[in-house]
Design a protein that fits this description.
The chain is of the alpha/beta class and 269 residues long. It folds into two domains: 55 residues, no CATH class; 207 residues, 3-Layer(aba) Sandwich (Rossmann fold). The chain is built from eight helices and eight strands; from the N terminus they run αααβαβαβαββαβαββ. The chain has an eight-stranded mixed β-sheet, sandwiched between helices. Helix 4 packs parallel to helix 5 and helix 7 packs across helix 8. Bound molecules: S-adenosylmethionine (SAM). S-adenosylmethionine (SAM) binds next to helix 5, strand 3 and helix 6.
Length: 269
């Protein structure tokens, strides 16, 4: 018993010293790297009272109550309930699956496949006729993108394969995996053909603006739904770009931030 207490104290002291030294590093030199700036932001958020949080002050897009996203409750299938870092939350998975089931899009386009967990959920909740196109940046192109990539995004790009979670499932046939940099990818074959778009690729300000501009062109007859992920402090580029679009572009004046999620949507009243 004594040994257990002693080892817990030693372990805590070691963690304490390691954290203290890391803080010195982060505040003296580490802040030069964006992943450490994100950490500083997280520390601020941790210590600030909820209603004073920076996030709330930075959000200018009106909120849409979760209960008002759909006129009625519907049941959905969630083939992969648990998520890893880089994937959307369980609640967000339910919301996007409900939207797919309710709006019944013919063509879906996702920017940013990663492991394909959201692609899989969308596939599980759409009709047999629905086609899902999902675009991912291959690891080999990590250092040759047209626009700036935040270092926080690099860990999600630096992987061997895209879409591992839908590969080999019964839903695979509905999905077409595309590869490329969303800033240079030729979207023109899909212009005016897509009913539902999920933007979750690179989260830098430049990419969010570029992907949003492409998404508008993808929409069939300028109608349908666009969802952006990561309207939150950890996706500061998303906040900055979407706030700017909301305030300055008539095409994006109806953006809404879905409560309880980091989703911003267009096309849902
Ligand atoms: C946060 S993950 C996406 C998570 C996924 N949508 C989900 O819900 O599970 C971001 C993905 O976007 C891809 N990506 C990053 N920059 C990109 C770019 N410029 N063009 C296309 N894909 C990009 C990365 O390779 C990574 O797989």
């Amino acid at each position: 018993m004594k040994t257990t207490l002693a080892s817990r104290i030693i372990s805590f002291v070691l963690r304490y010293l390691y954290a203290a030294l890391s803080c010195v590093y982060v505040f003296v030199v580490g802040f030069l790297f964006s992943k450490n700036r994100i950490l500083i932001t997280k520390i601020c958020t941790h210590f600030w009272h909820d209603n004073r949080s920076l996030e709330k002050r930075l959000s200018v897009i009106p909120k849409l109550e979760l209960a008002k996203v759909l006129p009625e409750k519907i049941s959905v299938q969630i083939p992969e309930p648990t998520s890893v870092d880089g994937e959307i939350s369980f609640l967000e998975t339910i919301v996007i699956s409900e939207l797919i089931k309710w709006y019944n899009p013919k063509n879906i386009f996702e920017i940013g496949t990663f492991n394909g967990r959201t692609t899989l959920s969308m596939a599980a909740n759409c009709t047999e006729e629905t086609k899902i196109y999902t675009l991912d940046l291959p690891k080999a192109k990590l250092n040759s993108t047209k626009l700036h990539i935040d270092s926080a995004d690099k860990i999600y790009i630096d992987k061997e394969n895209s879409g591992t979670k839908y590969l080999g499932t019964t839903y695979e046939d509905k999905i077409s995996q595309l590869y490329g940099d969303s800033a240079t990818f030729d979207f023109s074959p899909f212009y005016n053909k897509v009913d539902f778009i999920f933007i979750d690729g690179s989260h830098s300000y430049e990419y969010v603006l570029s992907d949003s501009e492409q998404a508008l062109k993808l929409l069939r007859n300028k109608q349908g739904i666009i969802i952006w992920h990561d309207y939150a402090l950890h996706g500061y580029g998303v906040i900055k770009a979407l706030n700017e679009l909301y305030l300055e572009s008539k095409d994006f004046k109806d953006l809404k931030h879905i409560c309880g999620t980091t989703f911003v949507c267009l096309g849902i009243d």
